[in-house]
Amino acid sequence: MPTAIEIVKRLVIGRARRSEELGETLLPKRLALPIFASDPLSSVAYATQEILLVLTLGGLAYLHFTPWIGAAVVALMTVVVLSYRQVVHAYPSGGGSYAVASANLGPSAGLVVGASLLVDYVMTVAVSVASGVDNIISALPSLAGYRVLMALGFVALLTALNLRGLRESGRLFAAPTYLFIGGVLIMIGTGLLRYVLGDAPVAESARYGITPQTGDQGLAGLALVMLVLRAFSSGCTALTGVEAISNGVSAFRKPKARNAANTLAAMGVIAVVLFAGVTTLAIITDVHIADDACRLTGLTDCAGYTQRTVIAQLAAAVFGGSTSFGFYYIQAVTALILILAANTAFNGFPLLASILAQDSYLPRQLHNRGDRLVFSNGIIALAVVAGLLLYGFRADVSSLIHLYILGVFTSFTLSQTGMVRHWNRALRAETDHVQRRRHHLARAVNCTGALVTGLVLVIVLATKFTEGAWLAVVAATVLWLMMRGIRRQYDRTSAELAVTDPRQDSVPPTRVLAIVLVARLHRPTLRALAYARAFRPDHLEAVTVAVDQESLATLRRQWHEFDIQVPLRVLRSPYREITRPAVEYVRSVRRDGPHDVIAVFIPEYVVGHWWENLLHNQTAFWLKSRLLFTPGVTVTSVPWQLSSATGTRRPIARAPGSVRRGEPPNEAGHPTAHASSRPPGTK
Fold first, then answer.
1. DSSP 8-state secondary structure symbol assigned to residue 637
2. What is the pLDDT of residue 196?
3. What kind and span of H or E run contains 543?
4. What does the pLDDT look like over 585-640, one tens digit per residue?
5. What span, in angstroms and rounded, lies between the C-alpha atoms of 393 and 148?
6. What tens digit of pLDDT does each residue of 383-417 get?
7. Minimal CA–CA distance to 45: which of 177, 207, 154, 144?
8. CA dist 576 → 119, 549, 572, 671, 679 (Å)
9. What is the per-residue burial (b if ≥16 Cβ within 10 Å, else e) of 367-377?
10. Structural contact between residues 311 and 334, judged by C-beta atoms closer than 8 angstroms
């Protein structure tokens, strides 16, 4: 009969799948695109906005840098996509940037990439969900007070959907992704057509001015350069998630590398078109947005004014206002795609964590597949950390965005540098002229990618470090150190467990001494004695700790009445301790016979409810936890199932010796032995 927890689990994630069904979970390209590319596709909803927010710090005068910054982001995205296509073909087994850096730059560089990407995946979930909630609030401002609760609810929903499996989540996420792509393309096309026809759409914020945060004197020289570079680094959020496809090549149908590369190319083309179109529309409609609504001039009540997101203002301008069908459609699909963009991380994080666990850098449990053949432990771990981050930062995009993209550009730079070394090695071994030309071209692409992404990494560090990016650096550093420590622990354990001399390791002990720990005489005690005798030890004895003299006298009397043919040793305990005297006695026996094996048998209750564990087995737990650290000692729990564990009621038993004394049955129902049918080990 399934328990309530099992029923709920099956309702949420579905039936368990056999290992042989793994091939059925592989993805066709039409499902792989929304699963792995929803993050870079959705970033067009806020990447342009991040550029404008930074430029307006200097006032409206600096918005003319927007097209140049947008063009630089498009060029960078093109280079990165082309570079990662090389990664997919060169490393078709998956692992992406981590595999490339580890193979070509060494394990330490690979760990830097792994730690950076894990942190970035967590940030992807937090930023995407928070941004999606922002767009919902743009359409329904009355929900602003439920921001954090909505964000945590969406993370829980995404977790449940991903635990159902890749194909299942892909089917659910495909429609919103394609609806978003189609809706934004229609919005861009309609807006550009109106502009060409002389009816250019105008944003609702176009009539507002913006007070410069930098003062009225304007910016020049280094300050202006830093402002532009900071805006560019904020716009580079459009590149987050590009590497996810290279990490998840193993999830594609065969031919895996070709399908992954084609999906990556399709993602790159769509993302470039959407980002360029949204940025162009933002310039045409003259969108004005500031980090603080009170910096907008012309507002009567800035404190009560809620700024709509850039994409919301574009939809209202293009489709005829904030009550039009087109506006609500764009807001709905944008909110959906932004929330589902976190799905890129829900697939990338568990896959990368599984590879790191396989290489002994993370706990091995992260490499195990769950009931639905997905890496369930990685999915749950990502959800918990991202949820804590959303709660701690109150689901505020502006606060979270500064922790973003640092990790992804670290992995971009190291992986492209590693690919350059990969092609150098391939060129030294290749003699075919056609292949050498291909290798030279591929190396040029990856070299360009390494230089450009390295420059962006420096810019991101310089412009965002003091604004909160240092937290991401600290988190990645701590994770890097932790993974190295885990690897050292696994290596030490493997070295200790390795067989060096089979003959020496398999030498039998001189003697086996069995000790049964006894608190009082009842049916579990007699079962433990019988179980220990079945092992045919060289010596068997029962040991009890005398905490209470009255209880000791009762135990001795019952031992004599039942004529137990096992010597009973009493350990004195003047301070009423149980664990220490028992452990010290076992260790003393071990010292007297260093080549002997001491087998300790502990009677233990098996209960059916969690709260019953608080009432039973506490002494047994502490005894086992101490004895397990003693060399040459084995600990065996002898279970006794209480009625709550078996679902049946045991008959009321009589106390030992009650039949001979003519006593009535024990109304308390304690599980003691019946004198007329004694268990093994008694006469």
1. E
2. 93
3. strand 539-546
4. 999 988 888 788 899 999 988 877 777 777 776 788 888 888 888 888 999 989 88
5. 9
6. 999 999 899 888 887 677 666 667 778 888 898 89
7. 177
8. 51, 11, 9, 26, 31
9. bebbbbbbbbb
10. yes
